């Protein structure tokens, strides 16, 4: 099953702890809210089998880049400073309970990140028979 979420990918970040509270940065909190909205109308039964997940992250090209650089990088592999495992954690945590019961069911992942004018996340899930 392949699904496309038209939500700009954001890497998961650590919770910030202060004297008074614990919170996540605004970008990550907004991403989680956007994913809730995107998953709002999903009516499927979560899988209970082992899963092979394929993730393609299409990261928005920075506005500060020149038109020439944007044209050159569009569709190419993304080499920004965010680690790909943090992108994976953010989306896999968001999909838990909807596409699978628990993210410990995921036993194999293929993840890639690209620059794109249209930010989105493409998620493909295959169940693995033991």
Task: Write a structural description.
The protein has helices spanning about 25-40, 65-75, 85-95, and strands at about 1-5, 15, 20-25, 50-60, 105-115, 120-130. It is of the alpha+beta class. It has a single domain (about 1-40, about 50-115), classed as 60s Ribosomal Protein L30, Chain: A. Strands 1-6-4-5 form a 4-stranded mixed β-sheet, covered by helices on one side. Strand 2 and strand 3 form a beta hairpin. The longest helix has 14 residues, at about 25-40. The radius of gyration is 16 Å and the shape is globular. The model has no long low-confidence stretch (mean pLDDT about 90).
List strands and helices in order, with pairings.
Blueprint: E1 2-5, E2 16-17, E3 22-23, H1 26-39, E4 50-60, H2 67-73, H3 84-95, E5 106-116, E6 120-128
Parallel strand pairs: 4-5
Antiparallel strand pairs: 1-6, 2-3, 4-6
Label the overall shape: globular
Q: What is the annotated CATH architecture? A: 2-Layer Sandwich
Report the span from N to C terminus.
Answer: 19 Å
The CATH top-level class label = Alpha Beta
The overall number of domains is 1
Which class of secondary structure composition applies to the elements? Answer: alpha+beta
Compute the number of helices. Answer: 3
Give the key terms.
130 residues, alpha+beta, 25% helix
Compact overview of the structure:
The protein has helices at 26-39, 67-73, 84-95; strands at residues 2-5, 16-17, 22-23, 50-60, 106-116, 120-128. It has 130 residues and is an alpha+beta fold.
């Amino acid at each position: 099953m392949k699904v496309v979420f038209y939500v700009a990918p954001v890497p998961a970040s650590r919770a910030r702890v202060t004297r008074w509270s614990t919170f996540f940065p605004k970008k990550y909190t907004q991403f989680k809210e956007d994913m809730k909205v995107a998953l709002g109308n999903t009516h499927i039964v979560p899988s209970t089998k082992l899963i092979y997940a394929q993730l393609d992250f299409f990261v928005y090209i920075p506005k500060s880049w020149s038109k020439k650089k944007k044209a050159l990088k569009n569709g190419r592999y993304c080499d920004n400073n965010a680690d790909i495992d943090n992108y994976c954690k953010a989306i896999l945590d968001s999909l838990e309970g909807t596409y699978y019961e628990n993210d410990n069911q995921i036993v194999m992942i293929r993840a890639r990140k690209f620059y794109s004018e249209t930010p989105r996340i493409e998620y493909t899930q295959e169940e693995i028979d033991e």
